[in-house]
Structures are given as structure tokens and as C-alpha cells.
Amino acid sequence: MGICEIPAYARPAAPPTGPWCGTALGALALPVLMSLMAATVGLGAAGWAAGAVYALVLWVLLARGLRRDGAATMRPADRVTLARAVLVGGAAALVADAAFGRPGHTWTLVAMSAVALAMDGLDGPVARRTGTASRLGARFDMEVDAFLILVLSVHAAFLLGPWTLAIGGARYAFAGAARVAPWLGGDLPPSTARKAVAVVQAVALIVAVSGVLPHGFAVAVAAGALALLAWSFGRDALWLWRARERRRVRERTPNGG
């Protein structure tokens, strides 16, 4: 052994790597955020419980997704989306607190939701610039958007009525319907209109729960968003149904003609 050579047992251990470790660091950011919230605006037991469950589910699902995707660690765009997911978790904690009678801290909720929504325009460009776009990254981004809308629709339900839950639940209802009618789970073509409708849902709900509008106007804004969402899902369902019919025609036609 050379005089400057360090035996293997004395060398510092290499930092742990892999999907589980990488995503755990991100999931730990949510308890840190909730601690800051508790020290400033206050956070009750319901908020802590909701945030803890959210952080655990986020860690497990994202780590499994990375492992199935064959990624050793998170990509740059995934880290941006994870930061958004942490903010959404903080918003969920505030909504859980409000549901159990604590002050809703409306402006904190609005600010966190608005920042999470604004950051939605970052992960795509980061993925393209770094050449790390992936199917998992797109799915992760979509799920964070969907959960933000669900959280906001739950809060809106206490202010405007339970019908607003249809806004947040529509995407999950569509996914559930695809289990009964598999053709609804087919791949849809990229659509700028679909993305715009998703943004409109989040913006409309943020405005509706902010308290800046009279109650009647807030109801009208949320109702308009729901009508637009129904149009978007109806259009996608119609496209998928027509695609199924075209496949059936090809299957019945000899030689695929």
C-alpha cells in the first residue's frame, strides 16, 4: 500500500444515489415549507397530516416512476416540477386546515398556487434546452397541474358550493371512465387548446377563492371555467370515439384497405 493510499474501509462513503434517495430530498422540502408556514401564518394538525401524507405519496410514486422509466436520478425539468409539487402540497395543507375550521389564510394559498401555476411554464423549456424531455416528465407535470386544480376546487366548494368539485374531479373521473371503457384511455394528439383550458381552470379557481370578486361574480367565473372544461373533455372523448371507430373499420376491411 502506498504511503498516500487510503484503505477502502477508511474512505468516506459515496453519497447515496438512485430514484429513492433523489426524490426523498425533494419530499423533505415540503416539511421544511410547512415549518415555515407554521411559524408565519400558522398550521394546524389537519394541515400537518395532509402535508405529511402528500409528501409520502409524492416520494413513493415519483421514485417508482423514475425506476420504471430507467432513470438513475431526476432530470433538470423534473426538479422544476418537483418544486411546483412542493408548493401544491403546501396549498393542500392550507386547504385541509380550512376544511377543519382553522383560518384559511387565503392570500397565502393564492400566492402559493399562483407561483406553482406560473412555474408551469418553466419545466417544458428546461426539458427542451437540456435535451431531457421524457414521458415521465410530461406525466409528472400533468399530475401536478391536475392536483392543484383539485385542491383549489375543494377550497372553492366551501365558498361557492360543492358543485365546484366537478372542476377538480373531472380529470380523475375521465381516468376512471377509461377503466370501464378502455377506448377513453387512448393517446390524444397534442392540443394547445387543451393546455389553455387547464390553465384557465387554475386561474379561474385562484381568482374565485381569492375574495377579490363579489360572490356572484366568483360563481360566474367558476361556472364559466366548468363549462369550458366540459367542452374540452367532450371534444377529447369525441376524438377518441372516432379513432376507435376508424380502427374498427380497418379491422373489418380485408388487407386493411
Automatic annotation (TrEMBL):
The keyword Chaperone does not apply. InterPro entries: CDP-OH_P_trans, CDP-OH_PTrfase_TM_dom, CDP_ALCOHOL_P_TRANSF_CS. It comes from the Bacteria. It holds the Pfam family CDP-OH_P_transf. The chain crosses the membrane at residues 36-62, 82-100, 146-174, 195-213, 219-241. Keywords: Membrane, Transferase, Transmembrane, Transmembrane helix. Belongs to the CDP-alcohol phosphatidyltransferase class-I family. This is CDP-alcohol phosphatidyltransferase family protein. The lineage of its organism: Bacteria, Bacillati, Actinomycetota, Actinomycetes, Streptosporangiales.
